[in-house]
TrEMBL record, chain A:
SUPFAM superfamilies: CO dehydrogenase molybdoprotein N-domain-like, Molybdenum cofactor-binding domain. InterPro entries: Ald_Oxase/Xan_DH_a/b, Ald_Oxase/Xan_DH_a/b_sf, Ald_Oxase/xanthine_DH-like, AldOxase/xan_DH_MoCoBD1, AldOxase/xan_DH_MoCoBD2, AldOxase/xan_DH_Mopterin-bd_sf. It comes from the Bacteria. Keywords: Molybdenum, Oxidoreductase. Residues 28-148 form the Aldehyde oxidase/xanthine dehydrogenase a/b hammerhead domain. This is Xanthine dehydrogenase family protein molybdopterin-binding subunit.
TrEMBL record, chain B:
Gene3D superfamilies: 3.30.465.10, CO dehydrogenase flavoprotein, C-terminal domain, Uridine Diphospho-n-acetylenolpyruvylglucosamine Reductase, domain 2. It comes from Teichococcus vastitatis. Keywords: FAD, Flavoprotein, Oxidoreductase. PANTHER family: XANTHINE DEHYDROGENASE SUBUNIT C-RELATED. InterPro entries: CO_DH_flav_C, CO_DH_flav_C_dom_sf, Diverse_Substr_Oxidored, FAD-bd_PCMH, FAD-bd_PCMH-like_sf, FAD-bd_PCMH_sub1, FAD-bd_PCMH_sub2, Mopterin_DH_FAD-bd. This is Xanthine dehydrogenase family protein subunit M. Signal peptide: none annotated. Pfam families: FAD_binding_5. Residues 1-170 form the FAD-binding PCMH-type domain. The keyword Oxidoreductase applies.
Length: 803, 264
């Protein structure tokens, strides 16, 4: 099951810069997004949301709303409970210290008894028009008893803090650990130096371009429900919503995710609105639709990051890392979103070795409920948090050790000869060459010439700094048995069904989902290459549980590493069957049939059959081994990965700071990433550029701010800064490849590396730019006012790295 | 948005008549502030009076030593109009930095002046250039027009019809944008001409204002150095999640220096 690459990149195959097939419809406005779809007789839903961070619901009077024009229903928790619906489920159960499983308080579809964050759904109003539904929502009278807000981790864990959930009296979801505490303590006991570092990974709002939307439909004759939704994983939604909330069997529930305009993780999760439209469509026997307003997205889409971490690094006299201790407080928000418990634990703390040989590591994570929007995976999901921590910590350590920041990294790199490398925090890395990506990035960035550029900038009155991040991440999630042991409530394999049609064209049904990644192109390249058919003869189909056998969807940079591997496995079955058909047609032994470049050949002869001749024979089996072989040419494969994949690389950022305004400009950004085999370099570069843009956004401008009453202050684009074209520089994006050793394509994944590797590179550059001011740390985001304040105070501002 | 009546008068007189008849009606020019407020249901006017059909509100002309710009002139037109580019290029450059392309093609100078958003660009230019705001019934000097946050000297039924900018010898503008909204965090417009030296500040305070100390300093010596040491007191300046009052006070000095440099 290994891919043999042709010596030259064939037209449209693996390695070619094929233009994205899907872009024409997107650019021409012909994408078919959920909100574009119109259903006969459709009704419109509006969600009435809590204006309070934390309050009891003492009474709801919806009589006036029900009587308003066009209103068909006003649903509240009472209706949901009477119908026996379940709550929104969490897909991961973390078991903490002493075998204590996490607190998993109910997450009702509509708030029951209490609201727990601004934006918590309280009522669902369905009317003939959207305006009528919204008018009626304003007429619903809710009597709230305002309770103390818990707008951040600090307030939630403060002694005597009010409990958000009855089932979590101390607002603690779990207290978890990983690694060997005794070995780590021993390493610290013999350390030459201990470097301590505290940081907060700023909370982010994902802000996909397309707001969430959902349409529920019910066919009374078949009893089938259909949910069309903005999802990264329709089968997962069918599982979560069908089995846990609506209690519908799979054969009576179809979930469709058509064109989806960006997700970045925020569209993985099952949201209450999906259940509401689906259930209401059954109640009202008419389609019910809902589309999120942008300002509603800010208070209802799962947020990302929000970790508060203290780390200590023990080093020997030569700067070798001996041990690492990390304590993290992770904000879960008000309820557990689908993957939330996994983010700070198995997607974050397991990365604490980074690309370094730190022999002893102990990580602890306390997950905390707060009266804020639920927090879950956002592009990178736990790995950006750990990467930022490590790569800032390493820079701080270099400074305190008086070492060069490249030298300290090189001295601790895992060497290519050490793979497979078992870390002290569960993961086993299969491949990588961190020196290679570092060297290539240094060359491309002209690192050696930096001091001259700094001097030139200084002459212009600007402070120039350079920052390096050498990162590693784990993606291609994930081996089902392993994640099952770690608390996942689902498998994380992927599925491909490949249907070769009689004329040799191919339909590929994949359980992954493309919402901007360009799968329709890169997957077609992969299939065209393997089967030797022109790329135009390959169609990628995703996003519909009625068409795709099964699938776990797209997140965690898994689509190619896991979904692509499933395609290879299915194609192997196709080719194996084709060889039998070819052997029959050419009166040869199956063992003598070779398949390459789209032809089945009898080895050592000039006899061959084209792929399309074999597919035709399979569907018109007149001359066919019908006794031994079924007609047709269609195969399905499930692929369960053997391990995570481990992309890594080096990001180098140069910034210039205007000392008068504190404004930070990224003037140069160089990335060299090892994402394994590259199918379409153009798409990979685009993925990395997009990820870096988001990383620059996190580092410099994006920030989610709640006030003491739990009101979201950064609740619109007026106050939540998103990266713009002017925020990002020209990128130099390079790849340097070591192959993944355990999947058939040798691919690792590229969707998240940009967002993972870049924030510490930017912040290391910011700190470097301020080196003359004695600055040792700046918290993200490095906004103008923050930088200006630091400069005003001579660098003595904000939390400092201290011994 | 809530339902409202819609009127599209073809003369200023008709528009004013409609406004006088219904205190809850709102005139709309480009709608760049009003329409989002309506969509968010933050505003519930009984009627919108669309000014886009009034020809007399349009156009740019030179009147003696002044440039007169009709109230319905878009930011894009201000940014690209040959007479403005020739007479007050700094004003055109300022207009070119407002919002984005879409906003500049919808938003109008009259709407911006009448709205008097603290972070809008034009009020600083109007103050620095000693402009006169023209209405359906009178001429109001800029110094008497901008009264406070979103507050002007306009009467309830009074309509901005245009603005007259005396042509300066030189003028310049510099601002720092709010990283999120891209409105002015603090901007300073400086001008020197027959009317004297003017320094108008936007974004920093609840209302645009003139920086008198800087005007005196620049009158004595037109140079960036002349304002470099002048500190704006932070009292009464805006403070929010994007910048403290002290930060904005600093920006007043920094942007003043840069505006002088921009003016040349």
């Amino acid at each position: 099951m290994n891919v043999t690459l042709p010596s030259a990149v064939s037209s449209g195959g693996i390695g070619a810069r094929v233009r994205r097939k899907e872009d024409l419809r997107f650019l021409a406005g012909r994408g078919r997004y959920t909100d574009d779809l119109v259903r006969p007789g459709q009704l419109h839903g509006w969600v009435l949301r809590s204006p309070h961070a934390h309050a009891s619901i003492d009474a709801i009077n919806d009589a006036a709303a029900r009587a308003m024009p066009g209103v068909r229903a006003v649903y509240t928790a009472r209706d949901i409970e009477a119908a026996g619906l379940g709550g929104v489920p969490c897909g991961w159960q973390v078991t903490g210290k002493g075998g204590k499983v996490m607190a998993e308080p109910p997450h009702p579809v509509l708030a029951s008894g209490k609201v727990r964050h601004v934006g918590d759904p309280v009522a669902f109003i369905v009317a003939e028009t959207r305006a009528q539904a919204r008018d009626a929502a304003e007429a619903v009278e809710v009597s709230y008893g305002v309770l103390p807000a818990l707008p951040d981790i600090g307030s939630a864990i403060a002694p005597g803090a009010v409990a958000l959930h009855d089932g979590a009296p101390d607002n603690l979801c779990f207290d978890w650990e990983i690694g060997d505490q005794a070995a780590t303590d021993a390493a610290f006991a013999r350390a030459h130096k201990v470097v301590r570092f505290e940081t907060t990974n700023n909370r982010l709002v994902p802000n996909a371009m397309e707001p969430r939307a959902a349409i529920g439909e019910f066919d009374p004759d078949s009893g089938e429900y259909t949910l069309t939704t903005t999802s990264q994983n329709p089968h997962v939604i069918r599982l979560l919503m069908g089995a846990f909330v609506l209690k519908l069997s799979e054969h009576k529930l179809r979930v469709v995710a058509p064109d989806v305009g960006g997700g970045f993780g925020s569209k993985i999760y099952h949201y209450a609105e999906e259940a509401l439209v689906t259930w209401a469509a059954g109640q009202l026997r008419q389609p019910v639709r809902w589309t999120c307003e942008r300002s509603e997205s800010f208070v209802s889409d799962a947020h990302g990051r929000d970790h508060v971490t203290t780390a200590e690094l023990a080093l020997d006299a030569d700067g070798r890392f001996l041990g690492l201790r990390v304590q993290t407080l992770a904000n879960m928000g008000a309820y557990l979103s689908t993957f939330a418990p996994a983010v700070p634990t198995y997607l974050s703390a397991t990365l604490l070795a980074g690309c370094y040989t730190t022999p002893a590591i102990h990580g602890q994570v306390k997950a905390v409920f707060t009266s804020t929007v639920p927090v879950d995976a956002y592009r990178g999901a736990g790995r950006p948090e750990t990467t930022y921590l490590l790569e800032r910590l390493v820079d701080v350590a270099a400074r305190e050790m008086g070492m060069d920041r490249l030298e300290i990294r090189r001295r601790n790199f895992i060497q290519p000869s050490q793979f497979p490398y078992q870390t002290p925090v569960a993961l086993q890395y299969d491949s990588g060459d961190y020196e290679a990506t570092l060297r290539q990035a240094l060359d491309a960035a002209d690192y050696a010439g930096f001091e001259a550029r700094r001097a030139e900038a200084k002459a212009r009155g600007m402070l120039r700094g350079i920052g390096v991040s050498t990162y590693l991440e784990a993606c291609g999630i994930a081996p089902s048995k392993l994640v099952g042991q770690l608390g996942a409530r689902a498998g994380l394999y992927e599925v491909a069904n490949i249907r070769v049609h009689p004329t040799g064209s191919v339909s590929v049904f994949t359980g992954t989902h493309s919402h901007g990644q360009g799968h329709e192109t890169s997957f077609a390249q992969l299939v065209a290459e393997q089967l030797g058919v022109p790329i135009d003869m390959v169609e990628i189909v995703h996003g519909d549980t009625a068409k795709i056998p099964f699938g776990m969807g797209t997140y965690g940079s898994r689509s190619l590493a896991v979904g692509g591997a499933a395609m290879v496995k299915a194609m192997d079955k196709i080719i194996a069957k084709g060889r039998k058909i070819a052997a029959h047609l050419m009166e040869a032994s199956v063992e003598d049939i070779e398949f390459a470049d789209g032809r089945f050949r009898v080895a050592g002869t000039d006899r061959s059959k084209a792929f399309a001749e074999i597919s035709m024979a399979a569907y018109v089996p007149h001359d066919y081994p019908i006794e031994e072989l079924e007609p047709g040419l269609e195969e399905t494969a499930f692929y369960d990965p053997k391990n995570f994949t481990y992309p890594g690389g080096c990001h180098i950022c140069e910034v210039e700071i205007d000392p008068e305004t504190g404004g930070v400009e990224v003037v140069k950004f160089t990335a060299c990433d090892d994402v394994g085999r590259v199918i379409n370099p153009m798409i990979v570069e685009g993925q990395i550029q997009g990820g870096v843009a988001q990383g620059i956004g996190q580092a410099l401008i994006e920030n989610t701010v709640y006030d003491s009453e739990g009101q979201l202050l950064s609740a619109s684009f007026n106050d939540y800064a998103m990266p713009r074209a002017a925020t990002v520089p020209e990128f130099t994006v390079l790849t340097s490849t070591t192959l993944c050793t355990h999947n058939p394509l040798g691919v690792k994944g590229c969707g998240e590396v940009g967002a993972i590797g870049s924030p510490p590179a930017v912040m290391n550059a910011v700190v470097d730019a301020l080196r003359d001011y004695g600055v040792t740390h700046v918290e993200m985001p490095a906004t103008p006012v923050k930088i200006w304040s630091i400069i005003q105070q001579g660098g003595a501002a904000l939390p400092q790295a201290a011994e | 948005m809530y339902d409202f009546a819609y009127h599209k008068p073809s003369s200023v007189a008709d528009a004013v008549k409609l406004m006088a008849a219904d205190p809850e009606a709102r005139p709309v020019s480009g709608g760049m502030t009003l329409l989002p407020a309506l969509k968010h249901r933050l505003n519930k006017p009984t009627a919108l009076i669309d000014l886009s059909g009034i020809a007399e509100l349009r156009g740019v002309r030179r009147e003696g030593d002044a440039i007169v710009i009709g109230g319905m002139t878009t930011h894009y037109e201000v940014a690209t109009h040959p007479q403005i580019l020739a007479a007050i290029p700094a004003l055109a450059r300022m207009a070119a930095t407002i919002g984005d392309t879409q906003v500049r093609n919808r938003g109008t100078i009259g709407g911006s002046l009448a709205n008097n958003d603290p972070a809008a660009d034009y009020p600083a230019a109007a103050l620095a250039l000693r402009a006169t705001i023209l209405t359906d019934r009178r001429r109001i000097p800029a110094d008497e027009f901008f009264l406070g946050m979103f507050t002007t000297a306009l009467e309830a039924d009074e309509l901005v019809t245009g603005i007259s900018f005396p042509i300066p010898e030189k003028a310049g503008y510099a601002k720092l944008r709010n990283p999120a909204s891209r409105y002015s965090m603090t901007g300073v417009f400086v001008a020197k001409g027959p009317q004297g030296v003017g320094v108008g500040v936007n974004g920093a305070a609840p209302c645009a204002f003139r920086q008198n100390e800087m005007e005196a300093a620049l009158s004595a010596s037109w140079s960036a150095d002349a304002v470099a040491a002048i500190k704006q007191p932070p009292d009464d300046l805006n403070s929010d999640i994007h910048g403290s009052a002290a930060y904005r006070a600093n920006l007043v000095t920094v942007m003043a220096k840069r505006a002088v440099a921009d003016a040349g």
